[in-house]
Design goal:
Keywords: Lyase. The protein has about 290 residues and is an alpha/beta fold. The chain has 13 helices and eight strands. It is globular and about 60 Å long. The model has no long low-confidence stretch (mean pLDDT about 95).
């Protein structure tokens, strides 16, 4: 099973102490572009998936079926291990079991669930509320037990920092470690000092969210490694860059009445990126 092999590959990289740098992907094009770049992992962002599927904010509006379908599509066009956002697990304990098994079957290597109340909200927006820590710990035990392959990784995210403070977020991180999470994700710390403290107090592999326009200061890989982090995701980097490039191109088209002289760069091998070469080879082989 491809997802099983990719999960084993991701586990091996973490065990060997290799830092995992994972750009955010959200659709087939972003997946294909990133897959060609040689990253150790990719990250399916809930923000980007919701925006690209529905044109709506990441506010609990994408369903389990929406996100599973997006994960299945992405896994079908990449070879790189995928870390995928699964929100809160989409409900109670049975929902969590179904989510883990569905994502795992789709080929996801590492599945992220968070301790927000439903409907969840984007991690760097106001008004987030979290469930009791012990309730989330049970979810994580269910998630670990639901795996059909021991290689599949469970990422536990806590959103407690914003509403309840860093001490509570770290208490939850330790509880989630004990509950069976393989990777810990403390969302939206607000200073470099907080990042350093998280690195000191979390013992399992630790994920940093280097989100554009967020609450957390962005730091380069060398400093994240020094502070004790093992993974870094850049969930909306590709999305924001693509949106701005489109805005520039469309503005030029409206003003100039032509695409000639467009200031935005063009991807000059879009046919190759999308796999048209394979289509043409197939047609030549089976031409009558």
């Amino acid at each position: 099973m491809a997802g099983n092999r990719q999960a084993a590959r991701l586990r091996d990289l973490l065990a060997r102490g290799e830092f995992i740098l994972a750009p955010g992907i959200y659709d087939g094009i972003s997946a294909r572009v990133a897959d060609r770049m040689g990253f150790p992992a990719l990250y399916m962002t809930g923000y980007g998936a919701t925006a690209s599927m529905l044109g709506l904010p990441d506010a609990g509006l994408a369903t389990y079926s929406d996100m599973l379908g997006r994960a299945e599509m992405i896994c079908s066009v990449i070879e790189t291990p995928l870390i995928a956002d699964a929100d809160t697990g989409y409900g109670g304990l049975l929902n969590v079991q179904r989510t883990i098994r569905g994502y795992e079957a789709a080929g996801v290597a590492a599945i992220q669930i968070e301790d927000q109340e439903m409907p969840k909200k984007c991690g760097h927006t106001p008004g987030r509320r979290v469930v009791p820590a012990e309730e989330m710990a049970v979810k994580l035990r269910v998630a670990a037990d639901a795996r059909r392959h021991e290689e599949t990784l469970i990422v536990a995210r806590t959103d407690a920092r914003t509403a309840l403070g860093l001490d509570e977020a770290l208490r939850r991180a330790r509880l989630y470690e004990e509950a069976g999470a393989d990777i810990i994700f403390v969302e939206s710390p607000e200073s470099e000092a907080e990042l350093e403290r998280i690195g000191r107090e979390v013992s399992k592999p630790l994920l940093a969210n280097m989100v554009e326009f967020g609450k957390t200061p962005r730091a380069e890989v060398d400093r994240l490694k020094k502070w004790g982090f093992d993974l870094a995701i850049y969930p909306v980097l590709g999305l924001t860059v693509a949106a701005e490039a489109m805005r520039q191109s469309f503005a030029h088209l409206k003003e100039a009445g032509t695409s000639v002289g467009d200031p935005a760069p063009q991807y000059d091998d879009i046919h190759g990126l999308m796999g048209f070469g394979e289509v043409w080879d197939f047609e030549k082989r089976w031409a009558t």
